[in-house]
Amino acid sequence: MSKEPALEPVRRPALSDEVIHRIRARIASGDWPVGTRIPPEPELMRQLQVARGTVREAVRALAHTGLLEVRRGDGTYVRAKSELSGAVARLYGDSDLGQLLEVREGLDAQAARLAAVRADESALDTLHHTLERRAAAWHAGDFEAWVEADWAFHCGVADASGNPLLAELYRNLAGPLRTAMAGAWATPGFQGADPVGHETLLTALRAGDAAEAGRQAAANVSDTRAWDDDGARRA
User: Which SUPFAM superfamilies does this one have (predicted)?
Assistant: First the structure.
């Protein structure tokens, strides 16, 4: 197992904002994934060559934004990959499915419209394979794999929009949305293999039909909201 590369020492006067930048970069790169514990305080001091107070100030600031979580007696853990996702999880983690879908409806439709004119063949093929995984997981009763594939498809459409800001906003709904969707699996009549808004959306994307792609994406969200309004949630 290869040793994790050390953080580069801070060469200029020890400033907490520089330490924040170094820690944030390590998290954004994926070196410190969400849920992992970052090096303890003495190790951060050694690697960054800064004082204890500077490290503590930086960690407090990142914990305040939701990027880190300090667990007394246990250590400091990565809570989110970006301040935006941390803020979403902290502020809206308890939102119900209906509230989240009201936000998602606009993002889904716009992402689909843009992807219809910007997605390349590689992105479309990836979406096709993701839907195959989604259907297979549903028929196998593997709901965790189904949720992963379903979310991967929607995020893939957002990525294919060619708008990185839209894609980032969309991905940061992941945590709260997955939590809110959890109850859908036990709902009588829930159909996780429904092609509406998925296979039909992909057909519109391949045809380059922006208007139809937007309609199909909106239809999927409307279908989900109908389940929620009836007390039975669907995705």
Answer: GntR ligand-binding domain-like, Winged helix' DNA-binding domain
The tens digit of pLDDT for each residue in 44-81 reads: 999 999 999 999 999 999 998 888 999 988 999 998 87
Q: What angle do CA 179, 184, 188 make, to 5 degrees?
A: 165
Q: Per the confidence metrics, is the pTM higher than 0.70?
A: no
- Answer for the pair 10, 48: CB distance below 8 angstroms, yes or no: yes
Among candidates 94, 80, 71, which has minimal Cα distance to 23? Answer: 80
**For the domain 16-85, what is the CATH code?**
1.10.10.10
Q: Where in the chain is the domain with CATH 1.10.10.10?
A: 16-85
Tell me how far apart the alpha carbons of residues 161 and 196 are, in angstroms, rounded to a whole number.
Answer: 20
Q: What are the structure tokens assigned to 39, written together? A: 């090096």
Residue 179 phi, psi (nearest 5): -65, -45
Span(s) in the chain for CATH 1.20.120.530:
94-229
Q: Are 194 and 223 in contact (CB under 8 A)?
A: yes
